[in-house]
Design brief:
Elements: E1 5-7, E2 13-15, E3 19-20, H1 26-39, E4 43-45, H2 53-62, E5 71-76, H3 78-82, H4 94-105, E6 110-115, H5 123-135, E7 139-145, H6 149-156, E8 165-169, H7 177-185, E9 189-193, H8 203-206, H9 209-218, H10 222-231, E10 236-237, H11 244-251, H12 260-267
Parallel strand pairs: 3-4, 4-5, 5-6, 6-7, 7-8, 8-9, 9-10
Antiparallel strand pairs: 1-2
Bound molecules: NADP nicotinamide-adenine-dinucleotide phosphate.
Length: 286
């Protein structure tokens, strides 16, 4: 690995910046992966839900990128287990779903496999089964996504294996301060998805006067300030872009530092606002 990394609680090294691939597929995926790899990205985030695991695999293959040189994350979705069963009953095993992800990604292992969403009906079962795959050596690290403290506390009741990563929506309009603190205390690596609050819907974030001021001071873009604010907290992040210049910009955040005062100013923009699904809705069913 030749870019900045973090070490997960099982000793696995993970690049602190990755390429988010939601909505990318076909030629858009190929071009984004090409420009990202050239810019230094070695971490690629996909999911069954994005229907682009195969696109990522062939992009990597056509670019001649070696498997050992990159870190791949994919995610297990509870809907995969249920498939087309109208009664919502489980018809597939986690292992079957995982093997289909391996086939689509044309690889024999995954660096990080996450439970995509804390569906209260399935997530404890999914976690037990993922631990088995991890212990069998098919996955280098396992984790969760969009889990809140109560979900994580419940995992502790069924196993001593602590998730290595919790991938969550995190940006200045939803800084997840308490959850980041809880995860740090429990050695769970936070990975910030949607760092730009998904882009189009977040013009107010990219044009926020506080962020613009800080960006001007450092002669950087607002996007770089946001990503720097995330990694300066020790969190991994996976911005998505199909624009070559922005891909370069988004990884060039290691040569400047935000002051404590600037970090605090950015924390103060918090509105606890989700631009994707709000996981608090699942808590009533725990
Ligand atoms: N675990 C989960 O449940 C979950 C949920 C959502 C997302 N994710 C993961 O997180 C990744 C990133 O999140 P996201 O896709 O929701 O969106 P995002 O990274 O927050 O925002 C992407 C948007 O920001 C724009 N952008 C990128 N760099 C920019 C820059 N330097 N300046 C201005 N605009 C910029 C992009 O436009 P251009 O392409 O035109 O640059 C795009 O419209 C996803 O792709 C996915 O891998 C995970």
């Amino acid at each position: 690995m030749d870019c900045n990394t973090v070490i997960l609680n099982n000793g696995v090294e993970m690049p602190i910046i990755g390429l988010g691939t939601h909505t990318l597929s076909g030629i858009k995926m190929y071009k984004s992966v090409k420009h990202a790899y050239r810019a230094g990205y070695r971490n690629f985030d996909t999911a069954w839900l994005y229907k682009n695991e195969s696109s990522l695999a062939w992009s990597l293959k056509f670019l001649g990128i070696e498997r050992k040189d990159i870190f791949i994350t994919s995610k297990l979705e509870w809907k995969q287990l249920v498939d087309n069963n109208l009664k919502g009953e489980q018809v597939k095993s986690v292992k079957t779903c995982f093997e289909s992800t391996l086939r689509r990604l044309k690889t024999d292992y995954i660096d990080l496999y996450l439970i995509h969403w804390p569906n209260p009906k399935y997530y404890l079962y999914m976690w037990e089964e993922m631990i088995k795959l991890y212990e069998e050596g098919y996955i280098r690290a396992i984790g969760v996504s969009s889990f809140l403290e109560p979900h994580l506390e419940k995992l502790k009741t069924i196993s001593d294996v602590i998730p290595m990563v919790n991938q969550i929506e995190m940006h200045p309009l939803n800084n997840r301060f308490d959850l980041v603190k809880y995860c740090n205390e429990n050695e769970i690596q936070i990975e910030a998805h949607s760092p730009f609050a998904r882009g189009a819907s977040a013009a107010e974030l990219m044009c926020h006067p506080v962020l613009l001021d800080i960006a001007r001071y450092h002669n950087r873009s607002v996007a770089q300030v946001i990503l720097r604010w995330i990694i300066q907290q020790g969190c991994v992040t996976i911005p998505r872009s199909k624009n070559p210049e922005r891909l370069v910009q988004n990884i060039h955040i290691f040569d400047f530092e935000l002051s404590e005062e600037e970090m605090t100013k950015i924390y103060s923009l918090n509105q606890d606002r989700f631009f994707g699904s709000d996981p608090r809705k699942t808590l009533a069913y725990l």
